[in-house]
Amino acid sequence: MHLSQDAAEQRIADLGMDDMPLESLRPTPHQIAPDWFKKYHELVHAFTTTLTDSIQELAISLNLSQQDFIDLIMGRRIPTNLSVRFRVPLVWGGKLEIDNLFMCLTFPYSHNMDRFIIEQAGNDIIWLPNPSKKIYIPTHLGGSGDGGNATQDRLSEIAAQIATSRGME
């Protein structure tokens, strides 16, 4: 069985992600190195330290506390209900690289992405969620109102200080 692009887009929309870009992949099994999880853990740490350019998504759309925000971008820990996912799973040739990762809310989005992928088991072509940014926030959850936001301003300042200290200006 094969889902057309239209059918895949309709299914992902049914799962609450009508703005999620999809990428087609012909799944071919790949060997995974035995130490993949250790490397993944190190990669997630490196990925989180690159999130200083994602202030809007982190501070406003995900509604993180200041401590969760700092812990996240410092690579200390990932807050509850956030997941780091592979764009292309390792078993199908995805690489252990920062560009192959994105973050999203675990529930319901990461759960629904797993469901979407599992429903396609056995297909010749698999449609994979592939958001354009490092953090996936559905359009209906994103953004803040007009007039500014003190939390965003404070977290933007913290992120700028961290980026400066890392030489990422």
Give a description of the structure.
With 169 residues, this protein is an alpha+beta fold. It has one domain (5-165). Helices cover 40% and strands 12% of the residues. It is built from six helices and five strands; from the N terminus they run αβαααββαββα. The protein has a three-stranded mixed sheet with strand order 2-3-5. Strands 1-4 form a two-stranded antiparallel ribbon. The longest helix has 16 residues, at 150-165. It is globular.
Topology:
Blueprint: H1 5-14, E1 22-25, H2 36-48, H3 55-61, H4 66-73, E2 82-86, E3 101-105, H5 106-119, E4 126-129, E5 135-136, H6 150-165
Parallel strand pairs: 3-5
Antiparallel strand pairs: 1-4, 2-3
Low-confidence stretches: 143-149
Q: Note the run of SSEs as H and E.
A: HEHHHEEHEEH
Structural class: alpha+beta
Helix count, per DSSP?
6
Average pLDDT taken over every residue: 87
Largest sheet: 3 strands, mixed
| Order of neighbouring strands in the sheet with most strands | 2-3-5
- Cα-atom radius of gyration: 17 Å
Q: What's the number of domains?
A: 1
Q: Give the DSSP E fraction (strand runs of 2 or more residues).
A: 5-15%
Number of strands: 5
Provide the helix percentage.
Answer: 40-55%
Shape: globular
Cα(first) to Cα(last) distance is 49 Å
